[in-house]
Amino acid sequence: MLKFGRRLDGWSVTSVCPRGTPRDLRPSRNMYVYIPHSPLRDIPQNRSPTMSTINQAFQSLKATRPIDDVWVRSDEYHNSFLIPRDEALEYARKNSTDHGLPEIAVSAAQGKLLHLYAKTIGAKKVLEVGTLGGYSAIWLARALPEGGELTTLEIDEKHAKVAQENLDHAGLTSKVKIVLGPAIDTLKKIPTESQYDLAFIDADKESNLDYVLEAERLVRKGGIIIVDNVVRQGRVADPSNTEDATLGVRKLLEHLKNDKNVDATSIGTVGEKGWDGFIYAVRL
Ligand SMILES: C[S@@+](CC[C@H](N)C(=O)[O-])C[C@H]1O[C@@H](n2cnc3c(N)ncnc32)[C@H](O)[C@@H]1O
C-alpha cells in the first residue's frame, strides 16, 4: 500500500511496496521515497490524495527509481578513501532527520566537491540558496579562511532553526549567517557591491532562473555559480516529463544557451542518491 507524509514542498511516500512490487520499483535502501514537487504537493495537509493523484505520484516515483545499489556501493567505496568520517556532518544529518527534515541534502561526495570548488578559487564569500539543515553549508563554510563568510537563504523557519543548531555544533557560528525568508526577496536586497566568490543554488527548482540571474549580479568575475539537481535522472531531457522542477531547469538551460555573463556546463553526479547533476558556471 502507498502511504504518504506531508513535507514542506512535496509529499513523501512512506511505504511503496505492495506485495509483488518488482524489485526495480522498490526503494532500495530508504524506507520512504521523497518526491519533491510531485502532484501531491498541492493537496492540503488535512485532505487525502485522490486515486488519480496517487497514480500520478506513482508514475513520478517510477521515473525516480530505482536507486541502483551499485551507486550506493560506489559512493561508499570512494568515500572510504577520500572522505573520513566526520562527527559534525553526521550530527547534522541525524539531527535534521530527527527533526523531520526531508533527506534531500547533497551527498557527502557532492558536499566535498562544493568544498573543493570553494577552496580552489580561494573563496572568502559564499552565497547559498536553500539551507535545509545546513549540511552543504558546513562543507562550504569549512572551505573559507579566517574572516570568510557564508550567507545561506532559507524560507522555512524550522529548517533554519535546525541548520543553526547544526552549524553551531560544527563550530561555524561566526562564519555562517542564515537569512530567513523567500530567497528571491533576500537576494534582491543584497547590494551588487557585495561580490561573492561562489554561489550554490539548491532551493525551489522552479525559481532556478531567477536565482541564477541574481547570482550573476552578485558573483564576481571569475567566480562560480553552481546549481544542483539539473539532471534529475535524465528527466530534464525527457520531453514527456513536465514536472515543475524539470521545467525550471529547462528554463534555466534556455537562458544559459545565449547568456554572455557565464560559461557553463552540466555534469551528472550520479552517486548514492541515484541521480542528478550540477550546472557549473564561471562568471565571465
Ligand atoms: C534541497 S534543500 C537544500 C539542501 C541543502 N543545500 C543541502 O544540501 O544541505 C532545499 C531547501 O530550500 C528551501 N526553499 C525552498 N523554497 C525556497 C524559497 N523560495 N526561498 C528560500 N528557501 C527555499 C527549502 O525549505 C529547503 O530547505
Tell me how many strands there are: 10
Low-confidence stretches: 5-39
Q: What summary fits the major beta sheet? A: 7 strands, mixed
Report how far apart the termini are. Answer: 52 Å
Structural class: alpha/beta
The whole-angstrom Rg is: 19 Å
Bound chemical compounds = S-adenosylmethionine
CATH class of the largest domain: Alpha Beta
CATH superfamily of the largest domain: Vaccinia Virus protein VP39
Major sheet: arrangement of strands: 6-5-4-7-8-10-9
Q: What is the overall number of helices?
A: 9
Q: What global shape is seen?
A: globular
Share of helix, binned: 25-40%
Compute the average pLDDT: 84
Instruction: Name the beta content range.
Output: 15-25%
CATH fold-level topology of the largest domain: Rossmann fold
Order of helices and strands: EEEHHHHEHEHEHEHEHEE
Can you describe what's shown?
This protein has nine helices and ten strands. The model is unreliable at about 5-40 (pLDDT under 50). The protein has a seven-stranded mixed beta sheet with strand order 6-5-4-7-8-10-9, with helices on both faces. It has about 280 residues and is of the alpha/beta class. The chain is globular. The chain folds into two domains: about 5-65, no CATH class; about 80-284, Vaccinia Virus protein VP39 (Rossmann fold, 3-Layer(aba) Sandwich), CATH 3.40.50.150.
